[in-house]
Amino acid sequence: MILTITMNPSVDISYPLNKFVINDINRVSEVKKTAGGKGLNVTRGIKYSGIPVLASGIIGGTTGEYIQKQLDKDNINYNFYITQHESRNCIAILHEGNQTEILESGPVLDSYDVSVFLEHYQNLLSQAQVITISGSLPQGFPVDFYTQLIEKANKYQIPVLLDSSGKMLLETLVSKNKPFLIKPNKDELQQIIQMDIDPNDVTSLVKAINHPLLNDIAFIIISLGKNGAFARCHHNYYQVSIPKINVVNPVGSGDVTLSGLAVSIHENETVEVMLKRAMTMGMLNAMESQTGFVNMGNYDKYYQQVKVTKIIAK
Ligand code: ATP
C-alpha cells in the first residue's frame, strides 16, 4: 500500500464567471467543490493507477467532513487525524481566461497536534510500502516536521517521495534523514540551489542536479512542464522528452507525476518505465479541466510517445 500525507488539505471551490467585476456582486451558477491539497491529487493519481492507497494528514470541522465525503465518493481509503480546527477552503475564480485564487492559510495548530499526529503516523507505518509527502505544513508546525516523518519511515526502510519546496524541502536536504526521492520543478529547485537552470541545456541541468545539497538523494526528478523532465537516479542521468499535447489545465500535473513515481517504486519498475509512467500521468492531468483527474483510457497512447535518454555526463 502507498501512504500519502497531506498535512493541510482543503476544499477547493471553483467559481467560473464570464466576467469578474471588482467591488460589485458576482453571481455564480456552476460551483464545483472538490477535496483538494497536493497530496490528495497524488492519492487520486495512485487510485486511477489501480494501486492500494491510504490518504492521511490532518482535517477538522465541517470542511474536514466534506473532504471525507468527497473521498468516500471516489472510493478512496483514508485515515486522518481529526482536530477541532476547521480545515481550509481554497477558492479559484475562473474568469476571462484568468484564474484568480483566494487561498485560506488553514488552521493554526500547536505542539499537541504535532505529537498526536506523529503517533497517528507511526501507527500507519506498518501498512506502508511507499510514502508520499506533498505540499505545505499547517501553521504552528515546525519547519523540520517532514524530516521527522522521514526519520520514522527510514527506520523501517520505507522509501519517502517528497514534493515540497522552500524551507521545508531545504530542512530535509540538510538533515541526515533524507527522502528517497524529490520532485522539484525548475523554479523550486532554483530557489533551493540559488542557481539559474536552463531547461534546454543538459550541462545546466547536470550542474544543478549535482549541487552538493542534493548529494545523498537517490532519485531526483526535476519536472520541466512541457519540456518533460531531467533526472538523476543513483549515478545515472536521464533526459525525458514528451510530445506536444493539448493543455487544458496543467494545475496539479506535478502531483499526478508524483503518483506515477510512487506507483513505479511500489511495483519495482525500472527507472525508464518509472520516468515514462510519471510523465504520462502528468500529461494526462494537463489535458483535463479538473485538477488531479486523468483519463486512463489515453494512457498507452501517450506512454508510447515519451522518450527517455540516458545521458553520459561529462
Ligand atoms: P503543479 O505544481 O501544478 O502540480 P509542477 O510545477 O510541480 O506542477 P510541472 O513540471 O509543471 O510540475 O508538470 C509535471 C509534468 O506534467 C511534466 O513533467 C509533464 O509531464 C506534464 N506537464 C505539465 N505541464 C505540461 C504542458 N504544458 N505540456 C505537456 N506536459 C505538461
UniProtKB/TrEMBL annotation:
Q: What is this protein called?
A: Phosphofructokinase
Asked if the record carries the keyword Nucleotide-binding, the reply is: yes
Supply the source organism's classification.
Bacteria, Pseudomonadati, Pseudomonadota, Gammaproteobacteria, Orbales
For this chain, the family text in UniProt reads: Belongs to the carbohydrate kinase PfkB family.
User: Which GO biological-process labels does this protein carry?
Assistant: carbohydrate catabolic process; small molecule metabolic process
Gene Ontology MF terms in the entry: ATP binding; phosphofructokinase activity
Q: Which residues form the Carbohydrate kinase PfkB domain?
A: 7-292
Q: Name one GO cellular component term.
A: cytosol
Is ATP-binding there in the keyword field? Answer: yes
Keyword list (alphabetical) reads: ATP-binding, Kinase, Nucleotide-binding, Transferase
Q: Which InterPro entries does this chain map to?
A: Carboh/pur_kinase_PfkB_CS, PfkB_dom, Ribokinase-like, Tagatose/fructose_Pkinase
